Amino acid sequence: LLLLLLLPPPLHCRAEAVKLEVRMPPSLTALHVNACPGNCSYRGGCMRQGSEQRAFCKCHYGFAGAACEQTDEGLGYRSTCWNNCQGRGVCRRGFCHCRKGWWGKDCGRSRTYGAHSARRAVHRLKVFAYDLPWELAYQPEYQLGWQDHDSIYMAWKVFGEMFFNDSSAMRTDNPYEANMFYIPAMTYAYSSNLGDTQVHATRVIDHVRATWPFFNRTRGLDHFMWLTNDQGACSWPGATHPEMANVIKVVHYAWHHPFGKSLPSGWDRLQNKHWGCFHPLRDICATPYWNGQAETAAATYGLAGSAPTFDAKLIPTQRLLFFAGGIRHHEPGYSHGTRQELHRRFGKGQHPNVTIHEGSFPDYIAAVRGSKFCVAPSGHGWGIRLSQYMAQGCVPVIIQDDVYQAWEDLLPYSEFSVRLPKSRIAALPELLAAIPDEDYLALRAGVAKHWRAFVWSSGAGGTAYDLMMASLQSRMVRLQARQFHPLQQQPHAAYGALG
Predict the structure, then answer these.
(1) Separation between Cα atoms, residue 67 and residue 36, nearest integer Å
(2) Torsion over CA of 242, 243, 248 and 251, rounded to 10 degrees?
(3) Disulfide check for 312: which of 18, 19, 448, 476 has CB 3.0–4.6 Å away?
(4) Residues 129-187: pLDDT tens digits?
(5) Distance (Å, whole) CA 227 – CA 199
(6) CA distance 284 to 472
(7) Cβ(194)–Cβ(325) under 8 Å?
(8) pTM listed for this prediction
(9) Which tens digit of pLDDT belongs to each residue from 341-375?
């Protein structure tokens, strides 16, 4: 009975089956549900903490209360329903039950439009978002395990809620005037961080193609979809599936593998050998979201009324270079071998002014803020360090060969970061120490100037949403200028969508 209570909704309520793996924290003991108040309303499991005798309910995502009797709408991306249904409906089990006259994903729509209601916008960005049926894109009120998805993968939902709340002229409910189309798929909800996103994405794209006329007129070049999993679109095919290749992929991992270049160790199964995981003219690399992002930036730069911890005119003296995190010596493909090489050369105190530490580090944020430079490598795919260093106030050293960074076509990275190839790791301390103080302080000033681009919360001064819309605007202009064209299912088109 307990196992049944821990299962996700039946498979007929989900677009795809997912592998269930129930993990119990070692300090929790599972009890029969009738040992808890109200049987936890059959919305959670009954638990006991450590040696305590008192049983309590551990509610599934979306429910709260001593007996899980309350619907917990939460805040921000943790809301069971997007934007809490805009106050125009009731959120039940992840669905918005809208008041009469309203409909849509978050009860945000009240008008319909005919085919001749408007002409397609030419000069100004106009983005229309599809409404997808629940059997294709639905996030249940609870997830596998006891918590919601890891926040670092949730930029897709943060953007979605901000977009549906956008009252500017960039968003339109009239698809006939739109020149960009948002497919609000939930690939991460179906694949998690290391799963295959193709099954869910293919179903959604096929539905959009068959239901509306807009996808087929450009073969998907003016449509975009988020893929925040570790390796983004690395598992997606290229020219053999043009309907998928043409879609603008919004990712965190933007590895552009040049055609003909040998693959790094561990990447022999890369599907698309012609541009890898990311097409820089078409796709968008967005900055990730993470819990505490706004609060960290506010403390660093003194936005909450307190004194800032960051001084652009001060040179940190604790150490020259810092990194702490996973190394994974046994996985050569992890971080393309960068973390392993750093640790081999500088780990375990091999350099007096460099700290490359495997695992967690005591008082991590203080260590970051006390270092002149902080290494930003990749991980299984994309890495979180760059966005964290910008919020925490450390000049990032990016060592990610052939990997584009967030908003790289919009931001002057040379003003706030140092970029080096993996081949220069051996000389890293000497190269960084040779940077004159004047140039280093200019980089610190660049961090203070551009950190907002890596923060999503507009209330904390973040501009990530604005840069996402600017990225769409630039893709719209490129499409109109025919800088790339639809892929055809022909051999000569296999090198990409370049015009």
Answers:
(1) 7
(2) -90
(3) 448
(4) 999 988 888 765 544 434 457 889 989 989 999 999 998 999 999 999 999 999 999 88
(5) 13
(6) 8
(7) no
(8) 0.84
(9) 999 999 999 999 999 999 999 999 999 999 999 99
